[in-house]
Amino acid sequence: MVKALRTVGRYILLMGRVFARPERMRMFFRQYVKELEQLGVNSIGIVLLISLFIGAVITIQIKLNIESPWMPRWTVGYVTREILLLEFSSSIMCLILAGKVGSNIASELGTMRVTQQIDALEIMGVNSACYLILPKIAGMVTMIPVLVVFSIFAGIIGAFASCWIVGIMNAVDLEYGLQYMFVEWYIWCGFIKSIFFAFIISSVSAFFGYTVEGGSIAVGKASTDAVVTSSVLVLFADLMLTQLLMG
After folding, report:
1. From CA 205, how far away is CA 200, in angstroms rounded?
2. What's the whole-model pTM score?
3. Whose CB among 6, 156, 205, 214 lies 3.0–4.6 Å from 218's, allowing a Cys bridge?
4. For 168-203, how does the pLDDT look when each residue is reduced to its tens digit (9 = 90+)?
């Protein structure tokens, strides 16, 4: 318990250093653009691929498991849309990105720590926490709503692919279900939740990488701890935000 409280305290103190005003805005902007590409643009491929297949699988599973003469034919499209908007494209996709992006951030900063690059920045009088971590957090928070949009569209395309290729149901019925009683607030809920998740993933992973002590083995352990901790916190935040936004 004491160790956990100490870790939380170190995290809060680090975030206090991170959210200082950048000393050189031009350098910050350059790093910010770099992180947009590294953390966001490079994740588009995996987001599209996973969402495409999950959209198809959700449609097929719902069709096979809840098919009944008592239910309207558009029920499959309606349920698929609700799953994609409310949970998959925001929460589950962020869990997947916690593995890819979180380990990337933790290993990068951890390697800089054990090779004394961060110490060199401190000696030069640079606020290394702000210089290294703030562009990552800003880049992740900026790109995550874009990734959510890509995920939603890819999931819908996957749902239609299950109609066109597999022939599981009529695409017209699926389209009607996707449009039936559409609630715009659900999309905004996904955006709001994903922004919180992006901050959790980037800041927690950066904390574990930045505070590494030891050698290369410690970097691997920090990367694992970053993914596990950020995933648990994302699930906890999902529970709380869902209650607040949908309650």
Report:
1. 8
2. 0.90
3. 214
4. 788 888 888 888 888 888 899 989 999 999 999 999
> Among candidates 92, 87, 110, 138, which has minimal Cα distance to 231?
92
Q: Which two tokens stand for residue 7?
A: 């870790």
d(CA 175, CA 191) in angstroms, rounded, equals: 23
Residues 229, 204: contact at Cβ < 8 Å? yes
Both tokens assigned to 114 = 């054990």
DSSP string for 81-95: HHHIIIIIIIIIHHH
Comparing CA positions, the residue from 242, 202, 147 lying closest to residue 35 is: 202
Contact 245, 193 (CB under 8 A): yes
Domain count of the fold of the chain? 1
Task: Give the model confidence (pLDDT) of 105-149 as tens digits.
Answer: 999 999 988 888 888 888 888 888 888 899 999 999 999 999 999
Structure tokens at 117: 């690059």
Q: How many CB atoms lie within 10 A of CB 64?
A: 10
Task: Report the distance separating Cα 204 and Cα 118, nearest Å.
Answer: 18
Identify the domain containing residue 240 by its residue range: 2-246
Q: Name the one residue in this structure whose structure tokens are 């390697």.
A: 111
